[in-house]
Amino acid sequence: MITLTKSLGYAWKQRRAWWFTATARTRERFARTTLGSFWLGFSNLISIAVLALVYGAVFKVKDFNSYVVYLGVGLLVWNTIAASIQSSAGLFKSNADNIKNTNIHPIFYSLEEWSFQLQTFAQSAILVLLALVPFQPSILLHLFVYGIVPILNLILFIYWFPLLISLLGAPYEDLFQLIPIVLQLLFLLSPILYKRETLGSIEWIASFNPLFLVLDGVRNALIHGELKFGETFAILFINILCFFVTVELLERKRSILPFLI
């Protein structure tokens, strides 16, 4: 408990530093572009438009406006989760020199990556949600009335889950080779491009997919103005618990981490 408190205390004291370095990465990423970080939202909008046209025709969607919103919110959240998990593979290895040769706590790098993903999500979400307003005007109202806790679940999940993968994969890099394969399979098995009921007898798969449960909470809140109180707060409790457990695990592995990377 003492080590956990020290880790969190260090993270709080360094909050300006890891947030600034994440912001600098975003600026560097679009340094020579005209539109800058707006490309994050535009790339999502292009994907949503193309997939909506294609799969709307494939699934013979009757209410195209509703499908665009359903697909748009789903892709927005999924891309955030997938990007956070994919970045976990190189989290500590890309900072190996600093971890081995400086006294900077490894939690700094996890928070920097988390901040980068949060900034990316926020910039994408602003443009995507504004673009979806003509299809569903109530989506912004739902965001502020029903979306706070589900989005908090998303924010917590994209910190502790990628960090856990980074820690588990540090001594076994084969795990990182599986990540793209697993993410692709989960994407196809998750009701993102299609409705959950179309899974038929295997609909239960969605209930055991933690990535989809986080995504579905956000999507239901934004689209339907629906907050499943019991489920949402149960996920919140699990996220908070896993956050503390994962930070404690990082602290315990801190001494041997330089030898694993």
What features would you describe in this structure?
The protein is mainly alpha-helical. Helix content is 75%, strand content 0%. It contains 13 helices and no strands. The two termini are 26 Å apart. The relative contact order is 0.14.
TL;DR?
This protein is an all-alpha fold and 261 residues long. The protein is built from 13 helices and no strands.
Write the element-wise H/E pattern from the N-terminal end onward: HHHHHHHHHHHHH
The total strand number stands at 0
Q: What overall form do the CA principal axes indicate?
A: globular
Structural class: mainly alpha
State the end-to-end CA separation.
Answer: 26 Å
Low-confidence stretches: none
The share of residues in helices is: over 70%
Radius of gyration: 19 Å
How many helices does DSSP assign? Answer: 13
Please name the defining characteristics of this protein.
0% strand; mainly alpha; 261 residues; 13 helices; globular; single chain
List the helices and strands and how they pair.
Blueprint: H1 2-13, H2 15-29, H3 38-58, H4 64-87, H5 96-101, H6 107-132, H7 139-145, H8 148-169, H9 174-189, H10 204-207, H11 210-224, H12 229-253, H13 257-260
Helix pairs in contact: 1-12, 2-6, 3-4, 3-6, 4-6, 4-8, 4-9, 4-11, 6-8, 7-11, 8-11, 8-12
